[in-house]
Known about the structure:
single chain, 475 residues, FAD/NAD(P)-binding domain, Enolase-like, domain 1, 3 domains, seven-stranded mixed beta sheet, five-stranded parallel beta sheet, 32% helix, binds flavin-adenine dinucleotide
Amino acid sequence: MSKNFDVVVIGGGPGGYIAAIRAAQLGFSTACIDEWKNAKNGPAPGGTCTNVGCIPSKALLQSSEFYEHAGHGFAEHGIDVKGLGLDVARMLARKDNVVKQNNDGILYLFKKNKVSFFHGRGSFVKGDASGYEIKVSGNAEETLVAKHVIVATGSNPRALPGVAFDEKLVLSNTGALAIDAVPKKLGVIGAGVIGLEMGSVWRRLGAEVTVLEALPAFLGAVDEQIAKEAFKYFTKQGLSINLGVKIGAITPGKKDVTVEYTDDKGNAQKVVFDKLIVSIGRVPNTIGLNAEGVGLKLDERGFIAVDADCKTSLPNVWAVGDVVRGPMLAHKAEEEGVAVAERIAGQHGHVNFNTIPWVIYTSPEIAWVGKTEQQLKAEGVAYKAGTFPFMANGRARALGDTSGMVKFLADAKTDEILGVHIVGPMASELISEAVVAMEFRASAEDIARICHAHPSLSEATKEAALAVDKRSLNF
Ligand code: FAD
Ligand code: NAI
């Protein structure tokens, strides 16, 4: 017997579970299907983000930062730590517990909002505008019938051609978050977000980390001035970042893995690593959906093809998150999930792609919203720039972290904020003010005239806005 729903969501990551909750809030009978399994074969909703992405990576970044502070940072505060030890198993267990709390939280939210949860793989059987039949296979075996379907099946790590992830020596994000002893020599291919975050974790815990990046520029999507500043800090911390390399043969042995590459000067290199993380981007996941069977169109890169409203090629079938175009970020997936549920309800769901913040959770953190200086130059936009260093911020000095700066870019004529870029302490939190300002199309002068608490890191934001008009007060 089939079960009927107004909305069936396939995938329970940030895009899917949030879409399901919003649809249920709007009064639709809603189901969410997710196949992720925990170690006991039970449900673990939350997708990549909760299980092997945002949440566990931030847990390990926090633990490793505490370890590094206890080892080096506390002494200048007059705090001597004797007999400092590291129990990686306990660190990983804590991380797993943080993940479980999030899995359980989502199951609780489903109950609270009356979302029916099915643990298994969802695939299209047949359907048209009058309704779709979705088969669930796995722990739950059911057939669901839906008026609307939201596909939120996420993404998978991209492997290097011919080099499969074994998660023991050649690691994707999954293996990188579960290394059970600090490797002596850790290789990382790809100096992107995962490479820098995971490289930072294991460097702080004592690994010698070598990052190999194909592009000649470091963090090409980041504002150049900010990327240069970050590069300085990362290399000073001991991350060896090699740009402009060409990866050759990768040979996993019994206990280590050999990487051959050509460096930026054209010299052949060969390095043996205890572990190798491959973080060269992610690919959309449509495995097992039976997209072709029902005529759900993919684009040339394998993403589900959608229009600006996340409508697919099939009537009443929508797709959100990593499986569609746009940045692969949890908060982007969530915004699309909410917007789609509201569009199904006939409302005007809204996602502003110009104000999606990016954060790299290294130390110092890097965060930005809007255009970079190089983008404005390429687009021929006349702009003014203002920067303020954390070195001149009292709270940063008290914290003992004066690295980095806040940078504002504003329209030369109207003073509207076009981009804000931060490298420094708590950049992930500070960027929200800039996102709000840009969402309301504020000017740099608006921020400059707002009273900010003293002493706070956010004063650096105000001062950078003042600097746009060459009026910073403390620098
Ligand atoms: P996913 O989270 O991938 O969820 C998809 C879900 O669908 C999965 O549970 C999957 O098992 C399930 N599924 C797939 N196919 C089926 C099917 N046929 N039937 C049933 N279930 C199915 N983003 C940030 O914004 N901030 C961060 O700090 C951050 N850190 C990250 C760190 C790492 C190491 C990684 C890898 C990613 C990180 N991301 C971060 C990116 C973020 O995880 C993704 O953008 C986000 O998870 C995308 O959400 P989604 O709902 O589209 O897909
Ligand atoms: P990425 O796109 O951030 O970085 C991949 C890097 O690998 C790029 O610099 C690229 O030039 C390089 N590269 C590609 N092919 C290569 C090759 N053959 N040899 C050497 N270098 C090569 O991808 P990453 O780090 O895998 O992360 C995937 C996505 O996950 C991110 O783009 C982001 O959307 C999301 N994510 C977000 C986080 C956050 O918001 N804090 C944290 C981690 C991941």
